[in-house]
C-alpha cells in the first residue's frame, strides 16, 4: 500500500461528539506524510512502538504519534533536526508523554517508528481539550490501520506502550511476539525506561538510529 493511499484512508473518518480526526486538517495530514516518508528512508533494525491515541496537546496538533510541538524546539536528535523546518503546527504545546519519550530517544539517539492503537483523538463528549481512553470497539477499529502501517514498513519487532497499544498490537498480529512496555504517564517513567532499555540494548542503539 502506498503512503498516499493510507493517508487518504485516514481522512475518511468523520468527527463525532467523542472522537476528532485530526487528519481531516490538510496541514496535520501533511505533517504525518512528511514523517512517514522520512521514516521510510531510515535504515537498520526497525521497531514499531504502538501507543494509545493522540492527545489533545500532542499528536492531535502535530499529526505525529508520541510528539508535541514543544519537542521540535529542542535539538539533539536526527529526526527532530530533519523535520523541524518542514512541519506546520497551529500552536506549540508541551505534552508530558512526548517529553519523556523524546528525552529518552535523544539520550540514546534511536529512532523507532510510532503509531497508535487508535489514530484519532478520543475525548469526553463535547470536550475537545480533554482525553479519554479508547474503547474496545475503537481499538478494534484501529487494528486495520495498524496492519496497514505494518505492511508499509515491515518492522522487525512490534511493541506496545501501555495496555491499549499492546492490546491493539496483539489483535493485529496474533502470530507475533509483542513486547509490552509500561506507559510513561502516571508515574510510569522509570518502568518505561527499563522497558525501552530491554528493547534497545546499548549495542543496538547505533543501528536503530
Write a structural description.
It is globular, with a radius of gyration of 16 Å. It has one domain (3-208): 3-Layer(aba) Sandwich (Uracil-DNA Glycosylase, subunit E). The protein is built from nine helices and six strands; from the N terminus they run H-E-H-E-H-H-H-E-E-H-E-H-E-H-H. By secondary structure, it is of the alpha/beta class. Helix content is 43%, strand content 10%. Helix 6 packs across helix 7 (163-172). The strands form two sheets. The protein has a four-stranded parallel sheet with strand order 3-2-5-6, sandwiched between helices.
Helix content: 40-55%
What is the radius of gyration?
16 Å
- Strand numbers in spatial order across the main sheet: 3-2-5-6
Morphology: globular
CATH class placement:
Alpha Beta
- Give the tally of structural domains: 1
Total DSSP helices = 9
Return the string of H and E elements: HEHEHHHEEHEHEHH
Q: End-to-end span in angstroms?
A: 25 Å
CATH architecture tag: 3-Layer(aba) Sandwich
Low-pLDDT stretches are none
The biggest sheet amounts to: 4 strands, parallel
> Might you state the CATH topology name?
Uracil-DNA Glycosylase, subunit E
CATH superfamily placement: Uracil-DNA glycosylase-like domain
Total strand segments:
6
Helix-strand category: alpha/beta
> In what range is the share of β-strand residues?
5-15%
The whole-number mean of residue pLDDT values reads 94
Oligomer: single chain
Amino acid at each position: 500500500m502506498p503512503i498516499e493511499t493510507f493517508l487518504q484512508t485516514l481522512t475518511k473518518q468523520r468527527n463525532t461528539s467523542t472522537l476528532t480526526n485530526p487528519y481531516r486538517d490538510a496541514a496535520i495530514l501533511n505533517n504525518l506524510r512528511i514523517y512517514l516518508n522520512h521514516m521510510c528512508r531510515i535504515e537498520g533494525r526497525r521497531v514499531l512502538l504502538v501507543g494509545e491515541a493522540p492527545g489533545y496537546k500532542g499528536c492531535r496538533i502535530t499529526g505525529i504519534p508520541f510528539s508535541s510541538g514543544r519537542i521540535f524546539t529542542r535539538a539533539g536528535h536526527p529526526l527532530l533536526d530533519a523535520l523541524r523546518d518542514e512541519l506546520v503546527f497551529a500552536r506549540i504545546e508541551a505534552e508530558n508523554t512526548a517529553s519523556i519519550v523524546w528525552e529518552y530517544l535523544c539520550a540514546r539517539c534511536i529512532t523507532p517508528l510510532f503509531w497508535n492503537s487508535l489514530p484519532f483523538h478520543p475525548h469526553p463528549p463535547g470536550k475537545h481539550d480533554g482525553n479519554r481512553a479508547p474503547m474496545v470497539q475503537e481499538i478494534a477499529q484501529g487494528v486495520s490501520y495498524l496492519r496497514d502501517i505494518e505492511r508499509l514498513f515491515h518492522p522487525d519487532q512490534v511493541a506496545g506502550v501501555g495496555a491499549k497499544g499492546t492490546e491493539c498490537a496483539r489483535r493485529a498480529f496474533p502470530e507475533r511476539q509483542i513486547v509490552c512496555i509500561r506507559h510513561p504517564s502516571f508515574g510510569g517513567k522509570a518502568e518505561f525506561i527499563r522497558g525501552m532499555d530491554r528493547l534497545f540494548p546499548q549495542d543496538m542503539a547505533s543501528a536503530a538510529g
